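Researcher: Quick sanity check before group meeting.
Model: Go ahead. Protein one:
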Amino acid sequence: MLPFLALLFSFAIIDRINLGAARTAGMGVDLNLTVGARYSIATCLYFIPYILLQLPGNYVLRKLGVRNWLTFLVVGWGAVQVGMGFVQTWGYLTFCRFLLGAFEAGFSPALFFVISTWYRRHEVYKRLAAFYLMSVTIGGFSPILAYALSLLDGRQGLAGWRWIFIIEGVITLCLGVLCWFFVPDFPDKNQFLTAEQTAFVLKRVEEDRGDSVPDPLTWEKLWKYLGDWTLWSYGIMFMCSTLPAYALAYFISIILKGMGWSTAASLLLSAPPYGPALITSMLFSWLSDKTKHRGAFIIIQALICVVGVVLMAFAKSNSVRYFGTFLANAGNAGTIPGILAYSSNNVVSQSKKAVQSALTISFGGIGGILASTVFREQDYPRYLPGLGVTIGSQVLLILVYLATCFHFNRLNRLTREGKLSEPLEGQPGFLYTL
């Protein structure tokens, strides 16, 4: 189940972040993106529909079914991606980015929601980490793929950067067709397991948290869930974790070019920093599931990210600054699935998971907006204000986690002492994961 979903998600990431590579390959000059804040605007407007349509997307998911909904989304944004290869002005580019955000909005929360319904609480971090890291590893080769496609410069009278969008869009369209045949559904609706295997999966989930059977999402439930401040705290933490990821995705090749490397070298050197993240993230996810603890591992990785960003911002040597990108990625990559696991572990019922996953990932879009706007054109090539905000985001992440940890620890203690009138999350025997 995970490899195909990871492949789909990797091209969602590639199609979302290839703007930086295309700009480095010549789009910035051809579309005059260096004028004012045009590049930031084109980058930023993607996230407006991406944020607003997350929750409606998860509502539609159950109505239309996973296969129908995801196929529609993948084919939709693949078509938009191809269209970006033919835009003639930065305004049309920005409009395409807006459409891209609208189609991708329902995709990410749907994937994480579906995956979380298949596993027990202390199995899910490793799976989410494996899923996310497979995606990021493939996505990490995006600059190399972009460089290879930019070598088509002049073919059919099209600039190299246009081929980046066209070819990657065509690949996405092909994946959309495969999505119809191979994407998995919720456990209770799946068609690739036998009846006995399905019953086994549902029994494991029911024994773990009691929500193997879906419950409908009503307006009454929606307002109740939105009144739970911890769901908003997960969103803030996720926002803080995605900000460095988007900053590196959109600006790493630009920062490297500002260090003096050529266009080709800047694109090629953008890929290696994603390598160590695969090792560190899987290690921390394995330890986290084994110990049934989330917070300490999230904090450690956030601090590793801080060290990396500090080196990127303040080191004198370009070699040391480049090494900082490795640390920033190594720390940041694992916090994203870590926070998704932490939030999923502490929510019971599929209707609440639908709201939680959509709300959490929508805040990731806010992280993308911040990354797009705090890395300003006038701060090129060092982008010190943007890197400073990135450091601050990791500090905020740690503080918000500590607030939720204190709250959950207190409720767990009161439950063990029998001082609460109702079981936590309405599920007898349930305790929050810290």
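Researcher: Fine. The other one?
Model: Protein two, sequence then structure:
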Amino acid sequence: MYEFLTGTIDAVHTDYIVVAVQGIGYKVIVPNPYRFAVGAKDVTVYVDQIIRDNIGITLYGFADLDEKVMFQHLISVTGIGPKSALAILATGDAAALVQAIQENDLKYLTKFPGIGKKSAQQIILQLADRLTPTGKPALTVKTVADPDAVNNSPALRDALAALRTLGYSDKDVVRIAKALRQEEAHSTDDYIRLGLKLLTQP
């Protein structure tokens, strides 16, 4: 069982990264691939290895240990699989997630792809007493003076593709695309974080 990988980020795709460790490239599925930069060296990715008869061995990776633990909590919930857990974690806002679970906020939880009312209730039932508040800062972005300046931004384009990969419908992605074009984000990761906030807000 792998606990973590430390190596060079060889590639970043819309739903996974490749971590090169001593000449071996590991395909690692992560909540938000664009948190990682191609070419970054000595990067530690915490991993959870899941083996299934119909899929084989899959490595799920996380930027820190807390995120990995949260993933393990989520997939322990009845009816929540790895894909749904990754979509929930992709926001990067652990504090908001923990708060929603502890405050029985079904509206927040059902904003995520694949999470209906029944699944949200199950998450709250099984995790409310197992999680402690966290104080991770929320993303802030500044409004750009000329919205058209980022209309064709490769970072924005990649972010919209990543949101679709996470399970959001074309309709939802198109709905928030205009708002994202009004924002100044410095990377695909920034756009994804902001997009997820827009998609999950009331």
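Researcher: One line on it for the slide.
Model: DSSP finds eight helices and seven strands in the chain.
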